[in-house]
Amino acid sequence: MARPRTFDEGRALDAAMHAFWANGYEATSTQDLCEATGLGRSSIYNTFSSKHDLFKRSLARYIELMTVPQIELLEDPELPPLERIRVLLARIVETEFEHRPDGRSIGCLTVNTVVELAGRDPEADAMLVRDQEVRLAALRAAIAAGQLAGGIATRRAPEELARFVNAVVGGMRVAAKGGADRAAVEAVAATALDALTP
Amino acid sequence: MARPRTFDEGRALDAAMHAFWANGYEATSTQDLCEATGLGRSSIYNTFSSKHDLFKRSLARYIELMTVPQIELLEDPELPPLERIRVLLARIVETEFEHRPDGRSIGCLTVNTVVELAGRDPEADAMLVRDQEVRLAALRAAIAAGQLAGGIATRRAPEELARFVNAVVGGMRVAAKGGADRAAVEAVAATALDALTP
DNA sequence: CTCATTATGTACCAATCAATCCAAAACTAA
DNA sequence: TTAGTTTTGGATTGATTGGTACATAATGAG
């Protein structure tokens, strides 16, 4: 029927996502995207209609890749709620320091995008707000369950504790990107759990 | 001797700092800087030798404006150490929400720059690392004093608690920039203090 | 007044930006 | 083979980027 593609769209999207992840939206040029994906300009504009569109799809993919497993973990009935949060924080430490022999973290595309584009890009904004609502809801539910079962401190409402855990995650990612070593980030996670412990 | 300047260098630097603060380094063009400062191109390049140089001076000014009062507060002998940290967090909430009737925070230039430039701009990197070391040292000292005097929990070392407080501050700023309202950010601060309370 | 010196505004520079155009290429259905 | 459709690469677009050149303006020292 027509000339077939010589590349895999999913792989190309992954490569673009990593480029945006490492360097941000503004600092990633369309030329960078060509080199990262291995595609020519025409193929990129034919497949993804603009740089901004490609960024939206990259962000959507990142959110899917990161948030879905986190929600599953927070709803895991096999683990006590406090343990779910402990594992969540441990996983974040893990992802921040995996495959980075120079010790410098690449950070988190969600946090990076909040800082770079929140308030200036309505579409990215909406995606980030929705993602955060989903994550906060899962945290609230796990915390409420933990308070009921007795493993999590009841001195504050689930809403407050969920906001706290969410902010600590962001703080850990900023610290890692700022050059903090693994022990330092693990100390943040461990101390945060103190606030949840009865 | 020579033609005098028709503008105040300090005011111009403040205006440039606010432009970088609101939009980041890459997204702020030299044209934006001209409009923000009210100066012509020649005056800007004559006074500050390049966009990057102007950014470094803006960042230095921001760090001075933010960190110096925070250090003074953390060393205030009039207040019990835990109270110093409580006031520190309260001030951060205050600065994030002052003069922002739309509720959208502009964030923190230090955090924004860590996320945007850490690992890619060695000079900005060095300034940020030094600033963070100063802030961590002040936090450690206040926490150690609090543990000795009895107002701060001793279940973790001052180094760990300082890292924790520092990360929470970053997390609060990301949350505010992401659209969280004042009550949500205050909940983060209050919960963080739980981890420091015996 | 005259002159050396600095500030300022305008025009301009090459480089890069995101995006488009178009012709050649590669495939399939008929 | 042929017609129809989409992909691909390369050239090119106009706008914008950070930065410069240069002529003119404004000052105080002599």
UniProtKB/TrEMBL annotation, chains A, B:
DNA-binding in keyword set: yes
PROSITE patterns, sorted: HTH_TETR_2
S-adenosyl-L-methionine found in the keyword field: no
Segments of the chain annotated as binding DNA: 29-48
Keywords from the UniProt entry: DNA-binding, Transcription, Transcription regulation
Xref: Gene3D superfamilies: Homeodomain-like, Tetracycline Repressor, domain 2
Annotated HTH tetR-type domain residues: 6-66
Pfam families: TetR_C_13, TetR_N
PANTHER family associated with the record: HTH-TYPE TRANSCRIPTIONAL REGULATOR YJDC (PTHR47506:SF1), TRANSCRIPTIONAL REGULATORY PROTEIN (PTHR47506)
Name recorded for this polypeptide: TetR/AcrR family transcriptional regulator
Species per Swiss-Prot/TrEMBL record: Kitasatospora purpeofusca
